[in-house]
Specification:
There is one protein chain. By secondary structure, the protein is an alpha+beta fold. It has helices spanning 16-23, 42-51, 56-63, 68-75, 83-104; strands at residues 27-30, 33-36, 65-67, 110-113, 126-131.
């Protein structure tokens, strides 16, 4: 199944503008939800909705998760950051993204989650943006 969660559009050499886009990304509003960088492709989105039994929170979390290790790999494919470095970057991304979302979408309650468990493998450390379904 295709997904919409890849870090796309940043294959070119990284410069300060590109870096700022990674750290202070664009969020778009699509189908009543906020998405990181771009709205999901229509076919992918419909496929995900069906697979997730039309739970938009789950679809949003799937599309809006980023593995912190990928950010290091973008700068150096051979990078081997320590767990502490991964956690530091994840916590900083969480704070920056939460601030940006509060500024850009003050009327929405958006969660930026970076919850590290001791048994999480380093490659699984991820940051996730989602909105809980209103009851």
């Amino acid at each position: 199944m295709a997904t919409c969660c890849d870090i796309d559009g940043h294959e070119e050499s990284l410069n300060l503008i590109t870096l700022s886009e990674l750290l202070w990304p664009q969020f778009v509003y699509h189908d009543g939800r906020i998405y990181l960088d771009h709205a999901p492709e229509t076919d992918d989105y419909l496929e995900l909705l069906l697979a997730c039994e039309y739970d938009k929170t789950t679809v949003q979390a799937l599309c809006n998760h980023r593995h912190v290790l990928e950010y290091f790999a973008m700068f150096d494919a051979k990078a081997t950051p320590t767990r502490a470095e991964l956690i530091t970057l994840g916590q900083r991304l969480q704070a920056m993204w939460q601030a940006k979302l509060a500024k850009d979408f003050p009327h929405l309650e958006i969660i930026v989650a970076f919850d590290v468990q001791d048994d999480d493998p380093d490659e699984d450390l991820q940051i996730v943006v989602y909105e809980e379904e209103s009851v």
